[in-house]
Amino acid sequence: MRQILIQVPRGCGQRVLELVEAHDGLNVACLSANGLDGRQDLIIVHISNRQVEALLKELESVPELHLTLLPRGVIVLRPPAAKLPEQIRNVEARSPIEIFIDGLQSVGSWKGFLGYAITAGIVVWIGLFTNTSYLLVAAMLLAPFAGPAMNVAIATARGDQPLLKQSLWRYLVALAVTILVAALLSLVLQQQIPTSLMVERSQISTVAVLLPLAAGTAGALNLAQSERNSLVSGAAVGMLVAASLAPPAGIVGMAAVIGRWDMVVNGLFLLLLQLVGINLSAALVFRAYGVSAQGARYQRGKRWVFPAVLAGTVVILLGLLSWQFADSPNFQHSSRAQRANAEIQQVVEQSDWVELVEANLRFTRPNIQGQNTLLGTIYVQRRAGINLSDADIRNRLTQDIQTRLLEQGFEVTPLMDVTVLSPPKDKS
């Protein structure tokens, strides 16, 4: 439920009461008041969220109308007292006008916005430079990417060209500031090589597109749901959106300084993938909650903008996915390393000499022309009664693993380090 305070000239209160009654208003009161414009009727209204925009549209016909919409939900109690559980159980989503207003209010001061972007750049740089994962989490909480990303989606759903341009500009500025801060820190401290966390976070999975789709859906649901109907905090949702943006932005800046342009390309690919993925899913969710080109107190939306921007988003997304799957394995390192690990386990399980203890695989980024290096460290334990030497087992197993990976079309250069372990001898 929402509370609305309505101020109209004296004598117009009855017309307002009729409109409120037609939209199932509850606990309504009409008071005589003195305002700056003279004597007025002040109507206090409590109305369900789904009726807010319809009521506001009807009230536009009342002259000299002044409205105060309280942004937080209220609990309306009325007789009989025994019906209390039924009266407060129905918690509804926000009205489209409230979703739109929330988006506009998030376009706040540039000073605070840029301050958070700079701080996020510093923290994400420290995390990547020192291989400290929890600092990346802190950077995700600080990064101001969620607001512009959600506003782009709201503008898409509304067909609002001015808001779309403004939100895209803030989004790009925030990313540019974070990238620049990370680059300056790497330049000042003379970073020469990428850290292991940079290499790990720059690798792309074949399912990378699912993260921005999930982030966009969660962000839109958080804005659309009433505060009493959400089990997830806004900070957690904002962190989910930033999780897909802050680390790649830091990697782009740091990798550019050390001349690792392959990592720069990966980072920019991820940033663009996040933007279009978040916009696609969030805009569709907002439309499902009734956000459209025209509404109460909102007339600047263009109906053609939503299908046009959505079609452009889908085209870009499909183009990125086509690029990802065509450029194998560069944009699929994370997933292909897991698949290769599964293949190695099968090779070892088929062996009569050893049993698998552990296998660790990762793509490295050495400057070797024309080579995608897959580095593997494999620990195996010889079976009882096997008389082959450790060197023979290592050489045969290495050849079997490399042959399997090449036959499966991994398009990599597999460099395997097999270590043969022996259990302690029985002293009895």
From TrEMBL:
Record InterPro entries: DUF389
Keyword Membrane belongs to the record: yes
Identification of the protein by name: TIGR00341 family protein
Organism, scientific name: Leptolyngbya sp. NK1-12
Chain ranges passing through the membrane: 113-129, 135-156, 168-189, 204-224, 236-261, 267-292, 304-326
Keyword annotations from UniProtKB, A to Z: Membrane, Transmembrane, Transmembrane helix
Domain of life: Bacteria
Keyword Amino-acid biosynthesis: no
